[in-house]
Amino acid sequence: MFKEFRTLGPYIKRYAGFYIPGIIALLLTSGGQILIPQFIRRAIDLIATGDFRAAQILSLAGMLVGTAAGISLFRFGWRMLIQNASRRIEAELREQYFQKLLTLSSSFFGKNKTGDLMARATNDMHAVRMATSLALVAAFDGIFMTLSILILLFSRYPRLTLYTIIPLPVITILILGLGSIIGEKFRKVQEGFSNLSDHAQEVFSGIRVVKSFVKEKYFLRKFAAANDDYQLKNMELVRLWGLFFPLVAFLSGITTILLLRLGGGMVMTGDISAGDFVAVLAYLEMLIWPMLGAGFTVNLLQRGAASLKRINAVLNEKPDIATPPDAVNGSTRGDLRITRLSYTYPGTETPVLHDVSLEVPEGAILGILGRTGSGKTTLISMLPRILDPPEGTVFLNGTDVRRFDLPVLRKSFGFVPQDSFLFSMSLRDNISFGLDDKKEDIVQRVAEVSTINRDAKDFYDGFNTLVGERGITLSGGQKQRVAISRALAVEADILVFDDALSAVDTETEEKILRELLEYRKGKTSIIVSHRVSTLSTADKIIVLDNGRIIQEGTHEELMCAEGFYREIYYLQSFEVKNGIGAPGCDEPE
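The structure corresponding to this sequence follows.
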Protein backbone atom coordinates (compact mmCIF):
# COMPACT_ATOMS: atom_id res chain seq x y z
CA MET A 1 0.00 0.00 0.00
CA PHE A 2 2.63 2.52 1.08
CA LYS A 3 4.73 2.23 -2.11
CA GLU A 4 2.04 4.26 -3.91
CA PHE A 5 2.65 7.19 -1.54
CA ARG A 6 6.21 7.62 -2.83
CA THR A 7 4.72 9.98 -5.41
CA LEU A 8 3.86 12.38 -2.58
CA GLY A 9 7.38 12.36 -1.07
CA PRO A 10 8.63 15.53 -2.83
CA TYR A 11 5.41 17.40 -2.01
CA ILE A 12 5.49 16.49 1.69
CA LYS A 13 9.15 17.51 1.87
CA ARG A 14 8.31 20.83 0.18
CA TYR A 15 5.55 21.56 2.68
CA ALA A 16 7.41 20.35 5.75
CA GLY A 17 7.23 23.95 6.96
CA PHE A 18 3.47 23.46 7.28
CA TYR A 19 3.44 19.85 8.48
CA ILE A 20 6.04 20.10 11.26
CA PRO A 21 4.46 23.06 13.16
CA GLY A 22 1.04 21.56 12.38
CA ILE A 23 1.98 18.24 14.00
CA ILE A 24 3.50 20.09 16.99
CA ALA A 25 0.22 22.00 17.42
CA LEU A 26 -1.66 18.69 17.11
CA LEU A 27 0.45 17.07 19.84
CA LEU A 28 -0.01 20.10 22.10
CA THR A 29 -3.78 19.80 21.54
CA SER A 30 -3.70 16.12 22.53
CA GLY A 31 -1.45 16.88 25.49
CA GLY A 32 -3.96 19.46 26.73
CA GLN A 33 -6.75 16.90 26.45
CA ILE A 34 -4.75 14.43 28.54
CA LEU A 35 -4.33 17.08 31.27
CA ILE A 36 -8.08 17.73 31.69
CA PRO A 37 -8.90 14.46 33.57
CA GLN A 38 -6.17 15.36 36.08
CA PHE A 39 -7.90 18.64 36.95
CA ILE A 40 -11.18 16.77 37.35
CA ARG A 41 -9.50 14.10 39.54
CA ARG A 42 -8.04 16.71 41.87
CA ALA A 43 -11.36 18.58 42.10
CA ILE A 44 -13.33 15.40 42.93
CA ASP A 45 -10.78 14.32 45.54
CA LEU A 46 -10.94 17.78 47.14
CA ILE A 47 -14.75 17.68 47.23
CA ALA A 48 -14.73 14.09 48.55
CA THR A 49 -12.64 15.14 51.59
CA GLY A 50 -15.28 17.70 52.58
CA ASP A 51 -12.47 20.00 53.66
CA PHE A 52 -11.82 22.43 50.82
CA ARG A 53 -12.12 26.09 49.98
CA ALA A 54 -14.03 27.50 47.01
CA ALA A 55 -10.84 29.23 45.90
CA GLN A 56 -9.19 25.84 45.40
CA ILE A 57 -12.03 24.64 43.16
CA LEU A 58 -12.09 27.95 41.29
CA SER A 59 -8.33 27.71 40.77
CA LEU A 60 -8.70 24.23 39.24
CA ALA A 61 -11.64 25.43 37.16
CA GLY A 62 -9.52 28.36 35.90
CA MET A 63 -6.70 26.00 34.92
CA LEU A 64 -9.22 23.75 33.15
CA VAL A 65 -10.69 26.69 31.21
CA GLY A 66 -7.19 27.94 30.31
CA THR A 67 -6.21 24.46 29.10
CA ALA A 68 -9.43 24.22 27.05
CA ALA A 69 -8.67 27.60 25.48
CA GLY A 70 -5.16 26.42 24.62
CA ILE A 71 -6.61 23.24 23.10
CA SER A 72 -8.93 25.33 20.92
CA LEU A 73 -6.10 27.61 19.81
CA PHE A 74 -3.74 24.75 18.93
CA ARG A 75 -6.56 22.82 17.24
CA PHE A 76 -7.18 25.84 15.01
CA GLY A 77 -3.45 25.98 14.32
CA TRP A 78 -3.03 22.37 13.19
CA ARG A 79 -6.18 22.52 11.10
CA MET A 80 -4.97 25.61 9.29
CA LEU A 81 -1.44 24.32 8.74
CA ILE A 82 -2.07 20.68 7.81
CA GLN A 83 -5.21 21.33 5.77
CA ASN A 84 -3.40 24.16 3.97
CA ALA A 85 -0.54 21.81 3.05
CA SER A 86 -2.89 19.03 1.87
CA ARG A 87 -4.88 21.45 -0.30
CA ARG A 88 -1.66 22.72 -1.90
CA ILE A 89 -0.49 19.15 -2.54
CA GLU A 90 -3.84 18.29 -4.11
CA ALA A 91 -3.65 21.36 -6.39
CA GLU A 92 -0.05 20.67 -7.46
CA LEU A 93 -0.68 16.96 -7.99
CA ARG A 94 -3.72 17.75 -10.13
CA GLU A 95 -1.62 20.20 -12.14
CA GLN A 96 1.11 17.56 -12.58
CA TYR A 97 -1.56 15.07 -13.66
CA PHE A 98 -3.03 17.50 -16.21
CA GLN A 99 0.43 18.42 -17.47
CA LYS A 100 1.20 14.73 -17.94
CA LEU A 101 -1.99 14.22 -19.94
CA LEU A 102 -0.93 17.01 -22.30
CA THR A 103 2.33 15.18 -23.06
CA LEU A 104 0.70 11.84 -23.89
CA SER A 105 0.07 10.72 -27.44
CA SER A 106 -3.32 10.31 -29.08
CA SER A 107 -3.04 6.51 -28.73
CA PHE A 108 -3.31 6.89 -24.94
CA PHE A 109 -6.61 8.76 -25.24
CA GLY A 110 -7.84 6.11 -27.63
CA LYS A 111 -7.39 3.50 -24.89
CA ASN A 112 -8.67 5.57 -21.94
CA LYS A 113 -12.11 7.13 -21.62
CA THR A 114 -12.56 10.82 -20.85
CA GLY A 115 -14.92 10.15 -17.94
CA ASP A 116 -12.38 7.89 -16.25
CA LEU A 117 -9.60 10.46 -16.67
CA MET A 118 -11.88 13.14 -15.20
CA ALA A 119 -12.76 10.89 -12.24
CA ARG A 120 -9.07 10.52 -11.45
CA ALA A 121 -8.69 14.30 -11.48
CA THR A 122 -11.63 14.80 -9.08
CA ASN A 123 -12.71 11.88 -6.87
CA ASP A 124 -9.27 10.28 -6.68
CA MET A 125 -7.57 13.61 -5.94
CA HIS A 126 -10.05 14.15 -3.09
CA ALA A 127 -9.11 10.77 -1.60
CA VAL A 128 -5.41 11.66 -1.82
CA ARG A 129 -6.05 14.97 -0.06
CA MET A 130 -7.86 13.18 2.77
CA ALA A 131 -4.91 10.79 3.10
CA THR A 132 -2.44 13.70 3.39
CA SER A 133 -4.52 15.57 5.96
CA LEU A 134 -7.05 13.76 8.16
CA ALA A 135 -5.32 10.37 7.87
CA LEU A 136 -2.04 11.96 8.97
CA VAL A 137 -3.78 13.74 11.84
CA ALA A 138 -5.55 10.57 12.99
CA ALA A 139 -2.30 8.59 12.84
CA PHE A 140 -0.18 11.02 14.86
CA ASP A 141 -2.98 11.86 17.26
CA GLY A 142 -3.88 8.22 17.79
CA ILE A 143 -0.32 7.04 18.40
CA PHE A 144 0.50 9.94 20.72
CA MET A 145 -2.68 9.71 22.77
CA THR A 146 -2.61 5.90 23.02
CA LEU A 147 1.00 5.79 24.21
CA SER A 148 0.61 8.76 26.55
CA ILE A 149 -2.57 7.45 28.16
CA LEU A 150 -1.27 3.88 28.51
CA ILE A 151 2.03 5.08 30.04
CA LEU A 152 0.15 7.31 32.45
CA LEU A 153 -2.35 4.57 33.42
CA PHE A 154 0.28 1.83 33.84
CA SER A 155 2.53 4.10 35.90
CA ARG A 156 -0.33 4.97 38.32
CA TYR A 157 -2.74 2.02 38.19
CA PRO A 158 -0.88 -0.98 36.68
CA ARG A 159 -3.17 -3.78 37.92
CA LEU A 160 -6.41 -1.98 37.08
CA THR A 161 -5.12 -0.91 33.65
CA LEU A 162 -3.95 -4.43 32.77
CA TYR A 163 -7.49 -5.82 33.21
CA THR A 164 -9.43 -2.98 31.66
CA ILE A 165 -7.48 -2.82 28.37
CA ILE A 166 -7.96 -6.53 27.54
CA PRO A 167 -10.36 -5.69 24.61
CA LEU A 168 -7.85 -3.29 22.95
CA PRO A 169 -5.72 -5.96 21.17
CA VAL A 170 -8.94 -7.37 19.68
CA ILE A 171 -9.69 -3.92 18.24
CA THR A 172 -6.17 -3.75 16.73
CA ILE A 173 -6.60 -7.15 15.04
CA LEU A 174 -10.01 -6.05 13.73
CA ILE A 175 -8.49 -2.91 12.24
CA LEU A 176 -5.67 -4.77 10.50
CA GLY A 177 -8.03 -7.43 9.17
CA LEU A 178 -10.55 -5.02 7.69
CA GLY A 179 -8.01 -2.56 6.27
CA SER A 180 -7.11 -4.45 3.09
CA ILE A 181 -10.76 -5.37 2.44
CA ILE A 182 -11.77 -1.70 2.72
CA GLY A 183 -9.03 -0.73 0.22
CA GLU A 184 -10.29 -3.23 -2.36
CA LYS A 185 -13.91 -2.13 -1.87
CA PHE A 186 -12.93 1.51 -2.31
CA ARG A 187 -11.04 0.74 -5.54
CA LYS A 188 -14.25 -0.77 -6.93
CA VAL A 189 -16.19 2.33 -5.80
CA GLN A 190 -13.76 4.59 -7.70
CA GLU A 191 -14.04 2.42 -10.81
CA GLY A 192 -17.83 2.62 -10.52
CA PHE A 193 -17.63 6.41 -10.38
CA SER A 194 -15.39 6.43 -13.47
CA ASN A 195 -17.92 4.29 -15.32
CA LEU A 196 -20.71 6.66 -14.30
CA SER A 197 -18.67 9.65 -15.50
CA ASP A 198 -18.01 7.91 -18.82
CA HIS A 199 -21.73 7.45 -19.44
CA ALA A 200 -22.54 11.08 -18.62
CA GLN A 201 -19.66 12.54 -20.65
CA GLU A 202 -20.47 10.44 -23.72
CA VAL A 203 -24.14 11.45 -23.71
CA PHE A 204 -23.40 15.15 -23.21
CA SER A 205 -20.80 15.13 -26.02
CA GLY A 206 -23.22 13.48 -28.43
CA ILE A 207 -26.41 15.15 -27.23
CA ARG A 208 -27.42 16.19 -30.77
CA VAL A 209 -27.26 12.59 -31.99
CA VAL A 210 -29.09 11.34 -28.90
CA LYS A 211 -31.93 13.78 -29.47
CA SER A 212 -32.14 13.32 -33.23
CA PHE A 213 -32.55 9.54 -32.79
CA VAL A 214 -34.88 9.99 -29.77
CA LYS A 215 -32.63 7.76 -27.62
CA GLU A 216 -33.06 9.68 -24.36
CA LYS A 217 -34.84 6.77 -22.64
CA TYR A 218 -32.21 4.28 -23.81
CA PHE A 219 -29.35 6.33 -22.39
CA LEU A 220 -31.35 7.05 -19.24
CA ARG A 221 -31.64 3.29 -18.69
CA LYS A 222 -27.90 2.86 -19.28
CA PHE A 223 -27.10 5.68 -16.85
CA ALA A 224 -29.54 4.27 -14.27
CA ALA A 225 -27.83 0.86 -14.50
CA ALA A 226 -24.38 2.45 -14.02
CA ASN A 227 -25.76 4.58 -11.18
CA ASP A 228 -27.26 1.51 -9.46
CA ASP A 229 -23.97 -0.34 -9.83
CA TYR A 230 -22.13 2.61 -8.26
CA GLN A 231 -24.67 2.70 -5.42
CA LEU A 232 -24.29 -1.04 -4.76
CA LYS A 233 -20.50 -0.76 -4.62
CA ASN A 234 -20.81 2.18 -2.23
CA MET A 235 -23.25 0.25 -0.05
CA GLU A 236 -20.85 -2.69 0.17
CA LEU A 237 -18.20 -0.30 1.48
CA VAL A 238 -20.67 1.46 3.79
CA ARG A 239 -21.87 -1.83 5.30
CA LEU A 240 -18.31 -2.91 6.03
CA TRP A 241 -17.33 0.51 7.38
CA GLY A 242 -20.61 0.79 9.28
CA LEU A 243 -19.97 -2.56 10.99
CA PHE A 244 -16.54 -1.42 12.12
CA PHE A 245 -17.65 1.50 14.31
CA PRO A 246 -20.27 -0.41 16.37
CA LEU A 247 -17.79 -3.25 16.95
CA VAL A 248 -15.13 -0.83 18.20
CA ALA A 249 -17.69 0.96 20.38
CA PHE A 250 -18.89 -2.39 21.79
CA LEU A 251 -15.37 -3.56 22.63
CA SER A 252 -14.59 -0.16 24.12
CA GLY A 253 -17.74 -0.44 26.23
CA ILE A 254 -16.43 -3.69 27.70
CA THR A 255 -13.46 -1.75 29.09
CA THR A 256 -15.93 0.49 30.96
CA ILE A 257 -17.71 -2.57 32.40
CA LEU A 258 -14.39 -4.02 33.55
CA LEU A 259 -13.51 -0.67 35.14
CA LEU A 260 -16.84 -0.53 37.00
CA ARG A 261 -16.33 -4.08 38.29
CA LEU A 262 -12.68 -3.81 39.31
CA GLY A 263 -12.28 -0.08 39.82
CA GLY A 264 -15.47 0.19 41.89
CA GLY A 265 -14.14 -2.46 44.29
CA MET A 266 -10.77 -0.68 44.54
CA VAL A 267 -12.53 2.58 45.44
CA MET A 268 -14.46 0.76 48.18
CA THR A 269 -11.26 -0.78 49.58
CA GLY A 270 -9.44 2.54 49.37
CA ASP A 271 -6.83 1.37 46.85
CA ILE A 272 -7.78 4.27 44.59
CA SER A 273 -9.71 7.47 45.22
CA ALA A 274 -13.00 8.50 43.64
CA GLY A 275 -11.08 11.08 41.63
CA ASP A 276 -8.74 8.38 40.34
CA PHE A 277 -11.75 6.29 39.31
CA VAL A 278 -13.24 9.20 37.34
CA ALA A 279 -9.86 10.00 35.76
CA VAL A 280 -9.36 6.38 34.64
CA LEU A 281 -12.90 6.33 33.23
CA ALA A 282 -12.15 9.54 31.30
CA TYR A 283 -8.89 8.11 29.96
CA LEU A 284 -10.57 4.89 28.85
CA GLU A 285 -13.21 6.90 27.02
CA MET A 286 -10.43 8.97 25.45
CA LEU A 287 -8.83 5.73 24.23
CA ILE A 288 -11.94 5.03 22.13
CA TRP A 289 -10.95 7.83 19.72
CA PRO A 290 -7.44 6.45 19.01
CA MET A 291 -9.04 3.06 18.35
CA LEU A 292 -11.62 4.58 16.02
CA GLY A 293 -8.91 6.86 14.67
CA ALA A 294 -6.80 3.83 13.78
CA GLY A 295 -9.66 2.45 11.71
CA PHE A 296 -10.26 5.91 10.25
CA THR A 297 -6.56 6.16 9.36
CA VAL A 298 -6.47 2.73 7.74
CA ASN A 299 -9.63 3.53 5.79
CA LEU A 300 -8.32 6.86 4.51
CA LEU A 301 -4.86 5.47 3.72
CA GLN A 302 -6.38 2.53 1.83
CA ARG A 303 -8.60 4.92 -0.10
CA GLY A 304 -5.67 7.24 -0.77
CA ALA A 305 -3.46 4.33 -1.90
CA ALA A 306 -6.17 2.99 -4.23
CA SER A 307 -6.65 6.46 -5.72
CA LEU A 308 -2.91 7.15 -5.98
CA LYS A 309 -2.48 3.87 -7.81
CA ARG A 310 -4.96 5.08 -10.43
CA ILE A 311 -3.26 8.49 -10.64
CA ASN A 312 0.24 6.96 -10.75
CA ALA A 313 -0.85 4.75 -13.64
CA VAL A 314 -1.20 7.96 -15.69
CA LEU A 315 1.85 9.73 -14.22
CA ASN A 316 4.05 6.72 -15.04
CA GLU A 317 2.74 6.47 -18.60
CA LYS A 318 5.43 7.11 -21.20
CA PRO A 319 4.40 9.15 -24.26
CA ASP A 320 4.74 7.23 -27.53
CA ILE A 321 6.00 10.37 -29.26
CA ALA A 322 8.55 12.64 -27.57
CA THR A 323 11.37 15.07 -28.33
CA PRO A 324 14.66 13.17 -28.84
CA PRO A 325 17.61 13.95 -26.50
CA ASP A 326 19.65 15.41 -29.38
CA ALA A 327 16.75 17.46 -30.76
CA VAL A 328 17.25 19.85 -33.68
CA ASN A 329 15.87 23.38 -33.25
CA GLY A 330 16.67 24.53 -36.77
CA SER A 331 14.32 26.00 -39.36
CA THR A 332 11.50 23.85 -40.70
CA ARG A 333 11.08 26.02 -43.79
CA GLY A 334 12.09 24.22 -46.95
CA ASP A 335 11.18 21.27 -49.10
CA LEU A 336 9.05 18.43 -47.76
CA ARG A 337 10.26 14.98 -48.76
CA ILE A 338 8.71 11.58 -48.04
CA THR A 339 10.81 8.50 -48.86
CA ARG A 340 9.42 4.96 -48.98
CA LEU A 341 7.01 5.52 -46.12
CA SER A 342 5.08 2.47 -44.94
CA TYR A 343 3.02 2.37 -41.75
CA THR A 344 0.94 -0.17 -39.83
CA TYR A 345 -1.12 0.83 -36.79
CA PRO A 346 -0.03 -0.90 -33.55
CA GLY A 347 -2.13 -3.98 -32.85
CA THR A 348 -3.03 -4.47 -36.51
CA GLU A 349 -1.39 -6.44 -39.30
CA THR A 350 -2.57 -4.67 -42.46
CA PRO A 351 -0.37 -1.70 -43.53
CA VAL A 352 -2.22 1.59 -43.98
CA LEU A 353 0.54 3.13 -46.13
CA HIS A 354 2.73 1.24 -48.62
CA ASP A 355 6.03 2.61 -49.89
CA VAL A 356 4.84 6.21 -50.30
CA SER A 357 7.41 8.59 -51.80
CA LEU A 358 6.92 12.20 -52.92
CA GLU A 359 8.52 15.65 -52.86
CA VAL A 360 6.84 19.00 -52.22
CA PRO A 361 9.02 22.06 -52.93
CA GLU A 362 8.77 24.98 -50.54
CA GLY A 363 5.84 27.23 -51.45
CA ALA A 364 4.06 24.59 -53.53
CA ILE A 365 0.51 23.34 -53.07
CA LEU A 366 0.03 19.57 -52.79
CA GLY A 367 -3.41 18.08 -53.35
CA ILE A 368 -4.36 14.61 -52.07
CA LEU A 369 -7.35 12.65 -53.34
CA GLY A 370 -8.46 9.17 -52.37
CA ARG A 371 -11.33 6.98 -51.27
CA THR A 372 -12.35 6.81 -47.62
CA GLY A 373 -9.80 4.68 -45.79
CA SER A 374 -7.09 5.10 -48.41
CA GLY A 375 -4.59 6.52 -45.86
CA LYS A 376 -4.90 10.28 -46.50
CA THR A 377 -5.33 11.36 -42.86
CA THR A 378 -2.67 8.87 -41.73
CA LEU A 379 -0.20 10.34 -44.22
CA ILE A 380 -0.65 13.96 -43.18
CA SER A 381 -0.65 12.98 -39.47
CA MET A 382 2.90 11.71 -39.95
CA LEU A 383 4.20 15.15 -40.92
CA PRO A 384 3.91 16.89 -37.48
CA ARG A 385 4.31 13.52 -35.69
CA ILE A 386 0.73 13.23 -34.50
CA LEU A 387 1.51 9.68 -35.60
CA ASP A 388 5.18 8.73 -35.53
CA PRO A 389 6.63 7.88 -38.95
CA PRO A 390 9.43 5.29 -39.26
CA GLU A 391 12.88 6.83 -39.01
CA GLY A 392 14.32 8.12 -42.26
CA THR A 393 11.01 8.44 -44.12
CA VAL A 394 9.75 12.03 -43.61
CA PHE A 395 12.07 15.04 -44.01
CA LEU A 396 11.59 18.78 -43.62
CA ASN A 397 14.30 21.08 -44.98
CA GLY A 398 16.50 17.98 -45.29
CA THR A 399 16.08 16.97 -41.62
CA ASP A 400 14.22 13.89 -40.41
CA VAL A 401 11.08 15.10 -38.60
CA ARG A 402 11.85 12.66 -35.76
CA ARG A 403 14.95 14.73 -34.94
CA PHE A 404 13.14 18.05 -34.48
CA ASP A 405 12.15 19.45 -31.10
CA LEU A 406 8.49 18.41 -30.98
CA PRO A 407 6.96 21.85 -30.15
CA VAL A 408 9.13 23.47 -32.86
CA LEU A 409 8.01 20.90 -35.42
CA ARG A 410 4.32 21.16 -34.61
CA LYS A 411 4.37 24.96 -34.53
CA SER A 412 5.51 24.89 -38.14
CA PHE A 413 2.18 23.33 -39.14
CA GLY A 414 -1.25 24.93 -39.32
CA PHE A 415 -3.75 22.08 -39.14
CA VAL A 416 -7.42 22.09 -40.16
CA PRO A 417 -8.65 18.59 -39.23
CA GLN A 418 -11.74 16.77 -40.49
CA ASP A 419 -13.39 17.23 -37.10
CA SER A 420 -13.49 21.02 -36.65
CA PHE A 421 -13.19 21.09 -32.87
CA LEU A 422 -13.89 24.50 -31.33
CA PHE A 423 -13.50 25.57 -27.72
CA SER A 424 -16.23 26.98 -25.53
CA MET A 425 -15.11 30.57 -25.94
CA SER A 426 -15.83 33.52 -28.18
CA LEU A 427 -15.48 33.43 -31.95
CA ARG A 428 -12.53 35.85 -31.71
CA ASP A 429 -10.77 33.72 -29.07
CA ASN A 430 -11.20 30.59 -31.18
CA ILE A 431 -9.68 32.28 -34.23
CA SER A 432 -6.75 33.74 -32.24
CA PHE A 433 -6.26 30.50 -30.28
CA GLY A 434 -2.75 29.86 -31.63
CA LEU A 435 -1.53 33.44 -31.22
CA ASP A 436 0.44 34.66 -28.22
CA ASP A 437 -1.03 38.14 -28.70
CA LYS A 438 -4.60 38.49 -29.93
CA LYS A 439 -3.94 40.85 -32.84
CA GLU A 440 -7.22 42.17 -34.15
CA ASP A 441 -5.88 42.91 -37.64
CA ILE A 442 -4.85 39.26 -38.11
CA VAL A 443 -8.20 38.03 -36.78
CA GLN A 444 -10.10 40.23 -39.21
CA ARG A 445 -7.87 39.30 -42.17
CA VAL A 446 -8.09 35.52 -41.72
CA ALA A 447 -11.83 35.80 -41.03
CA GLU A 448 -12.13 37.53 -44.37
CA VAL A 449 -10.12 34.78 -46.11
CA SER A 450 -12.35 32.04 -44.66
CA THR A 451 -15.48 34.20 -45.23
CA ILE A 452 -16.59 33.65 -41.61
CA ASN A 453 -16.64 37.46 -41.21
CA ARG A 454 -19.86 37.69 -43.18
CA ASP A 455 -21.55 35.26 -40.77
CA ALA A 456 -20.13 37.03 -37.72
CA LYS A 457 -22.09 40.16 -38.65
CA ASP A 458 -25.32 38.25 -38.06
CA PHE A 459 -24.28 36.80 -34.67
CA TYR A 460 -25.82 38.48 -31.62
CA ASP A 461 -22.45 39.78 -30.38
CA GLY A 462 -20.32 39.63 -33.52
CA PHE A 463 -16.85 38.20 -32.94
CA ASN A 464 -17.49 38.22 -29.18
CA THR A 465 -20.27 35.64 -29.56
CA LEU A 466 -19.71 32.49 -27.50
CA VAL A 467 -19.79 29.46 -29.79
CA GLY A 468 -20.73 26.91 -27.10
CA GLU A 469 -19.00 23.66 -26.18
CA ARG A 470 -17.32 22.04 -29.24
CA GLY A 471 -18.87 24.84 -31.33
CA ILE A 472 -22.36 23.38 -30.89
CA THR A 473 -24.08 26.69 -31.73
CA LEU A 474 -22.49 26.84 -35.21
CA SER A 475 -23.29 24.94 -38.38
CA GLY A 476 -20.80 22.46 -39.86
CA GLY A 477 -19.69 24.94 -42.52
CA GLN A 478 -19.25 27.73 -39.98
CA LYS A 479 -17.16 25.50 -37.72
CA GLN A 480 -14.93 24.56 -40.65
CA ARG A 481 -14.40 28.19 -41.59
CA VAL A 482 -13.54 29.17 -38.00
CA ALA A 483 -11.05 26.28 -37.94
CA ILE A 484 -9.57 27.53 -41.23
CA SER A 485 -9.21 31.04 -39.75
CA ARG A 486 -7.53 29.58 -36.66
CA ALA A 487 -4.98 27.70 -38.76
CA LEU A 488 -4.28 30.70 -41.02
CA ALA A 489 -3.78 33.06 -38.07
CA VAL A 490 -0.59 31.32 -36.87
CA GLU A 491 1.03 31.83 -40.32
CA ALA A 492 2.66 28.41 -40.18
CA ASP A 493 5.28 27.26 -42.68
CA ILE A 494 3.00 24.43 -43.84
CA LEU A 495 -0.78 24.57 -43.91
CA VAL A 496 -2.67 21.25 -43.91
CA PHE A 497 -6.35 21.02 -44.93
CA ASP A 498 -7.80 17.61 -44.11
CA ASP A 499 -11.05 17.68 -46.09
CA ALA A 500 -11.68 21.06 -44.46
CA LEU A 501 -14.15 22.36 -47.06
CA SER A 502 -16.52 19.38 -47.16
CA ALA A 503 -19.34 21.28 -45.39
CA VAL A 504 -18.95 24.44 -47.50
CA ASP A 505 -20.97 25.19 -50.65
CA THR A 506 -19.18 25.39 -54.01
CA GLU A 507 -19.39 29.16 -54.32
CA THR A 508 -17.95 29.74 -50.85
CA GLU A 509 -15.30 27.08 -51.50
CA GLU A 510 -14.10 28.88 -54.63
CA LYS A 511 -13.91 32.19 -52.78
CA ILE A 512 -11.97 30.65 -49.89
CA LEU A 513 -9.50 28.93 -52.22
CA ARG A 514 -8.97 32.13 -54.22
CA GLU A 515 -8.30 34.17 -51.06
CA LEU A 516 -6.23 31.35 -49.60
CA LEU A 517 -3.87 31.16 -52.56
CA GLU A 518 -3.27 34.89 -52.30
CA TYR A 519 -2.80 34.83 -48.52
CA ARG A 520 -0.47 31.78 -48.55
CA LYS A 521 1.63 32.84 -51.55
CA GLY A 522 5.18 31.53 -51.14
CA LYS A 523 4.26 29.07 -48.37
CA THR A 524 3.62 25.33 -48.58
CA SER A 525 0.05 24.07 -48.41
CA ILE A 526 -1.36 20.53 -48.40
CA ILE A 527 -5.02 20.10 -49.29
CA VAL A 528 -6.82 16.79 -48.74
CA SER A 529 -10.25 16.64 -50.34
CA HIS A 530 -12.82 14.39 -51.96
CA ARG A 531 -13.68 17.21 -54.38
CA VAL A 532 -11.67 17.53 -57.56
CA SER A 533 -12.71 21.20 -57.79
CA THR A 534 -10.90 21.86 -54.51
CA LEU A 535 -7.69 20.24 -55.76
CA SER A 536 -7.64 21.69 -59.27
CA THR A 537 -5.46 24.68 -58.30
CA ALA A 538 -2.76 22.52 -56.66
CA ASP A 539 0.74 22.48 -58.18
CA LYS A 540 0.86 18.72 -57.70
CA ILE A 541 -1.84 16.15 -56.94
CA ILE A 542 -1.43 12.58 -55.71
CA VAL A 543 -4.16 9.94 -55.69
CA LEU A 544 -4.05 7.38 -52.87
CA ASP A 545 -5.68 3.97 -53.00
CA ASN A 546 -5.17 1.31 -50.32
CA GLY A 547 -2.22 3.26 -48.96
CA ARG A 548 -0.39 3.51 -52.31
CA ILE A 549 0.12 6.42 -54.69
CA ILE A 550 -1.60 5.27 -57.87
CA GLN A 551 -1.51 8.61 -59.72
CA GLU A 552 0.36 11.90 -59.47
CA GLY A 553 0.66 15.05 -61.54
CA THR A 554 -1.06 18.38 -62.14
CA HIS A 555 -4.82 18.68 -62.61
CA GLU A 556 -4.41 18.95 -66.37
CA GLU A 557 -2.09 15.93 -66.52
CA LEU A 558 -4.41 13.76 -64.47
CA MET A 559 -7.42 14.83 -66.48
CA CYS A 560 -5.70 13.71 -69.65
CA ALA A 561 -4.85 10.30 -68.21
CA GLU A 562 -7.22 7.45 -67.59
CA GLY A 563 -7.66 6.64 -63.92
CA PHE A 564 -9.42 7.32 -60.67
CA TYR A 565 -8.89 11.10 -60.74
CA ARG A 566 -10.64 11.63 -64.08
CA GLU A 567 -13.44 9.23 -63.08
CA ILE A 568 -14.10 11.23 -59.93
CA TYR A 569 -14.02 14.48 -61.90
CA TYR A 570 -16.73 13.30 -64.29
CA LEU A 571 -18.83 11.95 -61.44
CA GLN A 572 -18.67 15.30 -59.65
CA SER A 573 -18.74 17.64 -62.63
CA PHE A 574 -21.97 19.44 -63.34
CA GLU A 575 -20.72 20.17 -66.84
CA VAL A 576 -20.68 16.46 -67.76
CA LYS A 577 -24.44 16.35 -67.27
CA ASN A 578 -24.62 18.96 -70.03
CA GLY A 579 -22.25 17.10 -72.36
CA ILE A 580 -19.17 19.18 -71.54
CA GLY A 581 -15.88 17.30 -71.06
CA ALA A 582 -12.59 18.29 -69.52
CA PRO A 583 -10.77 21.15 -71.27
CA GLY A 584 -8.19 19.94 -73.76
CA CYS A 585 -8.96 16.22 -73.29
CA ASP A 586 -11.29 13.75 -74.95
CA GLU A 587 -14.24 12.53 -72.92
CA PRO A 588 -14.10 8.89 -71.83
CA GLU A 589 -16.10 6.47 -73.88
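Residues 578-582 have pLDDT under 50 and may be disordered.
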